[in-house]
């Protein structure tokens, strides 16, 4: 079993280099390759120029055992991947009858005439192993050349993913006899990456050699990804669970879930468990918190609605914030955020009300309340908890961070309520 199989992913197309489309293929492919024990070492993008494609193929041959190419397989003249691969391998295009039958059927089912350009999609390099594309006319191709595997796939993401999942990944696993790789992700919130690393340093240093740890921070959250490599899936799962149990006492307060758990889903489950309803009052986040909450299927079971009180007038008329509070303390204050959270809970008749008010930026700050000053609150029938956030200068980042910190405040409030 080879434990160091390397891969390079190459995307082809001027539209990627010009920024006309976003390359999502390499991220997805990298994840899937890692999951089967193949390590991506580089990703590259080249335009629709044969010389550039040939150069990157020669370079990739020196770096990787697997070279995966996406794009350039359409029927038009600017799609040159197949011809360039012929030049690279020193072969000619040959019509593949299986591919031709699929293309013909594709057009017949749609009642469309097929042109010579469409028929040309069935012409493959002579050394290609045809990989059937069930969702389109551009074929997938597998090549074995000088102890390397080359895979050419269509650039359309849903076609590429279908081919990779159903044909390429199983064939790669069989060809290379890849090791078993298992991941376990611990999802934390409310603690910075450096503070987290310091807290778990001794545990991290004691990890077995075949288990690696990665820190993946993202807007107020840090994912701790444990990756174990071996040849026995049951053993790896057991070892990962053991490591989680060892580290959990050190960070339990900040752990909100595992693997694919999202904060808004975890919060929703807590509300459902306690049969509680929720409403939001948002100023600086402009409805973003409500959007995250309602992105969860079934959120109507606990979420009643939101009031986006961007102006002081709405805060007064819709939420019941007292004019004298705004006049004396301002919209961005503990006094105001408390009344917003309590007001939305009362107006929308819910068990819990949460609120945001702050200066998202890039302007609007003052010496005593600079950009990034944000207040959040969570109100229940038992108490109202407020927090002051001191964020940065970037508006989008401040909005996302505020929503995460507020959802975490709600999570902590629900956990405390469970204890009570």
């Amino acid at each position: 079993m080879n434990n160091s199989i390397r891969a390079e992913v190459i995307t082809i197309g001027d539209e990627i280099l010009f920024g006309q489309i976003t390359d999502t293929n390499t991220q997805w492919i990298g994840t899937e390759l890692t999951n089967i024990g193949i390590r991506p070492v580089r990703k590259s993008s080249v335009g629709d120029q044969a010389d550039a494609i040939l150069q990157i193929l020669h370079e990739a041959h020196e770096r990787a055992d697997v070279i995966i190419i996406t794009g350039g397989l359409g029927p038009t003249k600017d799609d040159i991947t197949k011809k360039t691969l012929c030049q690279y391998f020193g072969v000619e295009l040959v019509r593949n009858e299986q591919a031709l039958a699929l293309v013909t059927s594709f057009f017949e089912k749609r009642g469309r005439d097929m042109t010579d350009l469409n028929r040309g999609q069935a012409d493959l390099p002579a050394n290609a192993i045809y990989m059937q594309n069930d969702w389109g006319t551009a074929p997938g191709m597998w090549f074995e050349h000088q102890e390397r595997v080359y895979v050419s796939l269509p650039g359309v993401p849903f076609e590429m993913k279908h081919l990779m999942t159903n044909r390429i990944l199983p064939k790669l696993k069989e060809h290379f006899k890849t090791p078993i790789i298992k991941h376990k992700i611990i999802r934390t919130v409310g603690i910075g990456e450096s503070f987290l690393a310091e807290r778990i340093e001794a545990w991290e240093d004691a990890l077995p050699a075949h288990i690696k740890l990665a820190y993946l921070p993202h807007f107020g959250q840090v994912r701790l990804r444990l990756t174990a490599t071996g040849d026995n899936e049951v053993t790896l799962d057991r070892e990962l669970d053991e490591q989680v149990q060892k580290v959990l006492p050190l960070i339990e307060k900040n752990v909100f879930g595992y693997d694919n758990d999202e904060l808004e889903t975890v919060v929703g489950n807590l509300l459902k468990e306690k049969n509680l309803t929720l409403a939001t009052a948002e100023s600086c986040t402009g409805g973003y918190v409500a959007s995250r909450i309602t992105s969860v299927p079934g959120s109507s079971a606990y979420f009643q609605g939101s009031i986006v009180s961007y102006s002081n007038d709405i805060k007064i008329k819709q939420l019941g914030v007292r004019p004298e509070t705004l006049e004396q303390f301002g919209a961005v204050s503990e006094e105001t955020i408390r009344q917003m959270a309590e007001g939305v809970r009362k107006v929308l008749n819910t068990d819990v009300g949460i609120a945001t008010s702050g200066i998202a930026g890039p302007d609007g700050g003052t010496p005593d309340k600079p950009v990034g000053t944000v207040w959040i609150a969570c109100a229940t029938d038992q108490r109202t908890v407020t927090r002051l956030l001191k964020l940065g200068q970037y508006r989008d980042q401040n909005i996302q961070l505020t929503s995460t910190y507020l959802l975490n405040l709600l999570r902590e409030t629900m956990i405390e309520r469970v204890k009570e």
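Residues 180-258 form a domain with the Alpha-Beta Plaits fold (CATH 3.30.70.2860). The radius of gyration is 27 Å.
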